[in-house]
Amino acid sequence: MSKIERLGVVGGGQMGGGIAEVGARAGLDVIVCEVSDDAARAARSGLWKSLNRAVQKGKITEAERDETQARLHFTTTVGDLDDRQLVIEAIAEDEGLKLKLFAELDKVVTDPDAILASNTSSIPIAKLAGATGRPDKVLGVHFFNPVPVLKLVELVPSLLTSEDTIARADAFATEQLGKETIRAQDRSGFIVNALLVPYLLSAIRMCEGGFASAEDIDNGMVLGCAHPMGPLKLADMVGLDTVKAIADSMHAEYAEPTYAAPPLLQRMVDAGLKGKKTGKGFYTWE
Ligand code: 3HC
């Protein structure tokens, strides 16, 4: 099976940046496509910071950092992804934007065997596939934050994804990136978010109702259940706008109250309190 050598990542935020980092560290040539020069600069600076941190932690040498940086390129033109063998979309969790992007990728990516993947958490892969003329080459390849640390990748074929595409994506994630994969059907939230998001929403409802403080809710799960971080801190880290977008997609899919975003989450997003990315959410972040 042919190895992926040229990877494109659309969106250089915390997920896209993390995917680009693990790809480049695994030896791939990576182009990160962002929406503006400022966003591309921010993506580059986030990646350089993360690579410097890896050097400080002794995970890579300075020479390996320099080689990794040389494999990372930045653009604001989707057309620059024309020679990619795999493109992973990691833009905002917005169906309209993603559909537009998949239609554009389908036009510009020339290799008929190229895979067009989405890091979406909750938007139907079948819809994204339908925006292209190659639905057999489209699937969900869902990473977890922080991408360099967490081993899991969920593979999500739609009803039209070919076995060959799934096998190639699996080999890419496991053999090239050193991740572990699980497979889920094309249902909003897949496996992990379908379980995780109702838990995060329950914690927000608990806080909203004044039942306990954010710190006590989080300490309860960290000290009582050995979770690495509590649900409200995790929601802040994922981004409260992202948690809300995933909840909304799952609520649209299943129409069950467990997926309904509580008003507090909505108001915090309205107020720009989106968690770590804006410096304030349930906690204040440096
Ligand atoms: N990039 C690279 N490495 C990082 C990192 C980052 N952003 N953040 C932490 N690390 C590394 C550190 O370097 C450290 O490595 P070391 O043990 O080799 O020195 C290790 O991770 C632990 O980090 P810290 O000591 O700084 O801090 P913690 O022990 O508190 O761990 C954490 C931080 C890894 C974020 C941990 O708290 C954790 O795993 N939390 C849960 C994260 C989680 O549940 N993520 C899933 C979110 S859901 C999702 O992503 C899906 C999406 O669709 C919403």
UniProtKB/TrEMBL annotation:
Pathway involvement of the protein, from the record: Lipid metabolism; butanoate metabolism
Keywords: Oxidoreductase
Domain annotation 3-hydroxyacyl-CoA dehydrogenase NAD binding: ranges: 7-186
Residue ranges constituting the 3-hydroxyacyl-CoA dehydrogenase C-terminal domain according to the UniProt record: 189-285
Record Gene3D superfamilies: N-(1-d-carboxylethyl)-l-norvaline Dehydrogenase, domain 2 (1.10.1040.10), NAD(P)-binding Rossmann-like Domain (3.40.50.720)
InterPro entries: 3-OHacyl-CoA_DH, 3-OHacyl-CoA_DH_NAD-bd, 3HC_DH_C, 6-PGluconate_DH-like_C_sf, 6PGD_dom2, NAD(P)-bd_dom_sf
Pfam families linked: 3HCDH, 3HCDH_N
Family as reported in the entry's similarity comment: Belongs to the 3-hydroxyacyl-CoA dehydrogenase family.
NCBIfam families: PRK07819.1
The protein's name: 3-hydroxybutyryl-CoA dehydrogenase
Top-level taxonomy: Bacteria, Bacillati, Actinomycetota, Actinomycetes, Pseudonocardiales
